[in-house]
Amino acid sequence: MTERPSIPQRLETDHESVERDLFKLVLTIIELVRQLMEKQALRRVDEGDLSDEQIEGLGLGLMHLERAMEELKARYDLTTEDLDIDLGPLGSLLSS
Fold it and tell me: What is the CA radius of gyration of the chain?
């Protein structure tokens, strides 16, 4: 009979690691929503649903959101690839 490795009774975690992983998860969700908003905006532009002013405002808003995401990722030394989650046979969560 093969002896199974024992599982520690207590998880070893440090504050910085937990904080970074939580922040990484939050940024992953925000990046997913940002990408979905961008696709929806492009679809609406292609369909002609928006005025020129709305297109301008939407573009500026998406640019500001992308810039803020880049600043947050840099603060925690993360890349978009770090935020991606492998969903197995479904592929990755975030589009490239």
Answer: 20
- Per residue in 50-59, pLDDT tens? 899 999 999 9
Dihedral (CA of 7, 9, 14, 20) sign: positive
Q: Which two tokens stand for residue 33?
A: 């929503």
Q: HSE-up of 19 (CA within 13 Å, CB side)?
A: 5
Instruction: Please classify residue 24 by burial: count the beta carbons closer than 10 Å to its beta carbon, then call 0-12 exposed, 13-18 middle and 19+ buried.
Output: middle
- Residue 7: phi and psi, rounded to 5, are -95, 130
Q: 25 and 76 in contact (C-beta within 8 Å)?
A: no
Residues in the chain with pLDDT values less than 50: none
